[in-house]
Every structure is written in structure tokens, then in C-alpha cells.
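ok so for the tutorial part 2 we go from a plain amino acid sequence to predicted C-alpha cells. step 1 is just haveing the sequence, like this:
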Amino acid sequence: MPNSPHKLRSDRIVILGAGPCGLACADELERLGFHEWTLLESAHAPGGLATSVVDPAGFTWDLGGHVVFSHFGEFDRLLAELFTADELLHHDRSSYVRFRDRWVPYPFQQHLHCLPEEDAADCLRDLLAACKQREADLPTEPDFAAWLHARYGSALVQRFFDPYNSKVWATPPKQMASSWVAERVAPVDPREVLAPFTGAAAPARRWGPNATFAFPATGGTGEIWRRLAARLGDGLRTQARAVAVDPTARTITLAGGERIGFDHLVATGPLDQLVAMTATAPDRVLAAAGRLRHTTVAMVGLGYETPTTDERSWLYFPQSDVPFYRATNFSKYAPANVPSAATNRFSAWMTETAITPDTHSDHRTLIRSCDQALRRHGLVPERAPLAIAHLELIPYAYPVPTLDRDAVLAEVVPWLEELGIYPRGRFGTWRYEIGNMDHAVKMGIDIARRLVNGTSEELLAPLPMVAAAAGSRS
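step 2 — the prediction. this is what the C-alpha cells look like for a chain of 474 residues:
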């Protein structure tokens, strides 16, 4: 069988996509002494969603807000192999939410004492009522909106959670599931929230795995993946776009017509695209994959001829008059992200605006709106010259955890794995909750070990096959 747990001897493994997952998979295969692999990347350079680019003025930009932190020893080991200690800069996260006329420390729900008096009273009242209700009853919330209301109360949802998440996901929270939340949304302890209102000091505890993070001193996030790709040799092919997969013939067809044989296929690109180009996909699987939803993000990088003076890392914007949901102080991450770093002449802000796929956007209008918003909220001096504006449109930015996502995955993924096709990475699994770079690396390493040694994957639990009766749409 294609997915036999027995050790491979002379099987051929093809990996689609040279992002963090695909690169880590190939690297682990080499480490295990297995050399019959080919890594195909459609772009001209490796890195995937973690690529960095340099614009004509010399500013470095990431494709969205990436920082380096880790849940896994394998990711830590990889960084230690690729970078010396002085080649990574380390930061304590400093993050705020823009609310009315002020900056509220992140997480918003833990700093209600920083809100205007009336807003603070409303949010605190509803939060305490929600906590009391949960103590009496532990319902299973059917959607993300209900989950938010049950944990934080209506006032917090109205003022922050609903407008912010609607911007991030370009999807109403009521159309999203709550099963993905895990460590992505900060919990609250009512005693800690109340403490500042009674004169006690606010807790010093910082929440989240990215409370401290690292960043490459030069080259942006993409430097990690450039270095990893450089040690893989000729097994990595760029500008090699797969357009068809034939599980029966065990071949992949590239855009130029070339066919490449495989015994096992690790696919790290978007799951819906993978299913669409797989020759034997039944109607029920095609229909299921067609229900998957994702966001497109416009990353507008704005470089200014003014020094970097803001010490904060990134900022959240729930309000509708700001196009972006997040602004990252990119010159603070690493001075080398701007030209002439030693002179402290320039600063850089990286903004992210989510849109629904295939939505037409006037790029000049978006750039102007982002620039005006940064100035209006005091992040850039009103008269600071704009040195350059750089826009990157990311067609597949985040997989949306819709209400039926898990049912779709249970329909699609086991069918693919029965064919010896293993979807992995952020968009291969379509699971935002394991969509960070360290997750992607762990998935790549785990599938390599599974295919070579027959070991179980630690991060991914197997999805059950869907019974034939569930496929009545075919």
C-alpha cells in the first residue's frame, strides 16, 4: 500500500512546495540518509509564505507578520544549525490595540482598566456575568461568535472581538468554528482583570508563546529558508509548477509538460488546489474541497525618511476606518530591514489588509489609505517623507476555520493519504491553529520520519475515513 508503515528502500518521494514544511521535509530525509527525493517549488526562490523581498529602495519586507518562536525542539535545532548566536535578534513583545483615542496593551481583555470609564464598566460587567454563567453551565458553543460571547461577554465582543476578527478573517465570526482557538485567543482570570480597579497592581504575567521572539539580523524571515535551501543541493527545483497529479500512474505533470514519477507525494500547497489537480478525485471529494475558504492579504510596506523611534513590536486596529488589521514596526525587528541602517535615517511599517479572494482592490487607493492611517494615529510624523511604498498580494494568506472545515478535512485528507499523498503545512492541513513556521517545520520532519522509518507523526492525529453514506453528494 502507498502509505505502508514499513521502511522505504528505493521509493521516490516528491515534495510540492519549498516553504518551511517542504524544506524541512527534504532536509530531514537527507538527515535520515534517504536521497531519493525531489522538491518542486513553483516560484523562482524558496520560502513560500515565509519569503522576504527587497524593494528597489533597499527596504526588506516579509509577506506578513512573522516572528521566530518555537514549540518544538526540532525547530530550535534547525535554527541553531543555520544561525550563530549574534545572527538572531531577540525581542520582548510589545503590542497594543488602538481603541478610540488610546493604546490599550495586548491582550485587550486583560487590560480593561485602560479603557475609557464607561467602556471599562460595560466590558467588566459583561465579562464577570459571562464568567459566572460559565461556572453554572458549560455549553458547547456552535460557532466562534457564540464562543466569544460565552467567555468575554457582549460588551467586549462588540467593542473589540467582533470588529477585529471580522477584519482579520474577512468572515463574520458566526460563520467560523470555535474548535481552532487553542492558544490563539488569550483567556482571562477575573481576579487579574479586577485587580487594577481595586488599586492593586496589574499582573506582570505576559500571555502567549510569542511573548518573546527572535528575528534574523539581516535578510528578514526569508533568510532562514534561504539558508536551509542552500544546503539541499540539486534536489530542489524552483520554477517547477505542478499542474496535475495522477495517482494511478504515480506521476506529476509540470506546467511545461514534464512528468515526474513518485511513490509518495508530500504536498504543502493549498489543499483545494491539490484536490482539483488530482486526476481521480471523486465528486464528493471535489465538492468538499470546494467548500474550503481562505483569505487573501495585501501587505503594504511603507518606508519613511524618518528615524525609528517607536519601541513597540506590532499594533492591532479593529476600527473600520483603518484598512489594515495589523501594523508591524518592521525597522524595530531588525535595523537592517531599512537601507543605511547605521544612520537611523529610515523607518518601516508593514501593514496587512485582509480581503476575500478574487476581490478587486485599487492598490493606489489602498496604499494611500494605509499611509494616511499610520500618520493619523501618530505612528509616523505628519510631514515625514514617504521613501517608498511596496505592495505584495498574498493570494492564500490564512485558511479560514469555517463551521464545516473539520468535516471537509475528514472527507478529503484520508482519501488522499490512501493514495500515498500527504497534505501538510499551513494550507495542506488547512488548520490555522497549527499554521506557524515551527508547526510547518515539525510537520515536514514528522512526515519524513514516518515515510522512512514508519514512526507516528507527533503533531497530526490521523483523520478518520468518512463512511460511504456521507458521500451522498457524489
